């Protein structure tokens, strides 16, 4: 992505620094770590410090919002995480798809060694304690509530809602330690920041919505052109810029103000909202890294 016209994005509220300390100080209380990522951008939606923060704890990576992502790309990501030593599954917190497999996978795969040891020692009733982590707005609280069968965790469609740790009892044998969402001190790679902005992990208040929409449209034109053609009924040519595409969306939706000028801000809000709502189709924003031979 071309970042020349996008201001540098920084995002590290004070409560996120506290989260790093909370993770480190509470890690000894749990048997495994459950990490939630966005299936559309699994690597960008992982805190790069998480490997270090969670040390050598067994881990399950949950690719949430998989119903919004490209199926084939999601499977490649699952294979990637498994090759890196973490079990991985795809779920969708809104529809509930895949959620029932989370606890069985943890107990039969992620914690198989621990569960076998407990069985040999007659400790089958001992509770499994899990720490659940993820960046803001990745659907962590929604997954917890589905697993717990009640509104245990606060849910809002904006980043940074969960501010303190809380224990949630899932069943008689499983307890979950919910940690606040954590990003990182600074974005070394602005492409990562932009992908997070596309999905809403970064507050829209610190971004130029029109620039963001133009970048998204340019990405879609190159990688998923049918999503633009089918949704907005506009042609895509090799010469069109993100601004051209945004203005065409505004024209097609009748977003014209005095003097025939296109209301590009309104068009931008529409494009971003429709992408986040899945109305542009199943789209992945990044591919797994290529393994070195």
UniProtKB/TrEMBL annotation:
It is found in: Cytoplasm. GO terms for cellular component: cytoplasm. Residues 19-185 form the CP-type G domain. InterPro entries: G_CP_dom, GTP-bd, GTP-bd_ortho_bundle_sf, GTP-bd_ribosome_bgen, GTPase_MTG1, P-loop_NTPase. GO terms for molecular function: GTP binding; GTPase activity. Belongs to the TRAFAC class YlqF/YawG GTPase family. MTG1 subfamily. This is Ribosome biogenesis GTPase A. It comes from Ruminococcus flavefaciens 007c.
């Amino acid at each position: 992505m071309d970042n020349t016209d996008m201001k540098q994005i920084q995002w590290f509220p004070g409560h996120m620094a506290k989260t790093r300390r909370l993770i480190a100080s509470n890690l000894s209380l749990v048997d495994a770590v459950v990490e939630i990522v966005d299936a559309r951008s699994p690597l960008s939606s992982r805190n790069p410090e998480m490997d270090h923060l969670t040390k050598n704890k067994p881990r399950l990576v949950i690719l949430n919002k998989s119903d919004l992502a490209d199926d084939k790309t999601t499977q490649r990501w699952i294979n990637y995480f498994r090759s890196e030593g973490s079990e991985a599954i795809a779920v969708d917190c809104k529809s509930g798809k895949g959620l029932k497999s989370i606890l069985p996978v943890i107990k039969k795969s992620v914690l198989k060694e621990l569960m076998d040891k407990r069985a040999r020692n007659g400790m089958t009733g001992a509770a499994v304690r899990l720490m659940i982590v993820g960046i803001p707005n990745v659907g962590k609280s929604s997954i917890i509530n589905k697993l717990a069968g009640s509104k245990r965790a606060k849910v809002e469609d904006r980043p940074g809602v969960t501010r303190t740790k809380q224990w949630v009892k899932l069943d008689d044998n499983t307890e979950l330690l919910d940690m606040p969402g954590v990003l990182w001190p600074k974005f070394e790679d602005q492409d990562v920041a932009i992908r997070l902005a596309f999905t809403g992990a970064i507050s829209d208040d610190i971004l130029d919505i029109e620039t963001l929409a133009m970048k998204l449209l340019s990405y879609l034109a190159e990688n998923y052109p049918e999503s633009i053609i089918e949704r907005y009924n506009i042609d895509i040519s090799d010469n069109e810029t993100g601004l051209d595409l945004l203005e065409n969306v505004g024209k097609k939706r009748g977003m014209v103000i005095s003097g025939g000028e296109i209301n590009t801000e309104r068009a931008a809000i529409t494009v971003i909202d429709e992408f986040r709502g899945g109305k542009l189709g199943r789209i992945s924003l990044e591919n797994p890294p290529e393994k070195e031979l």
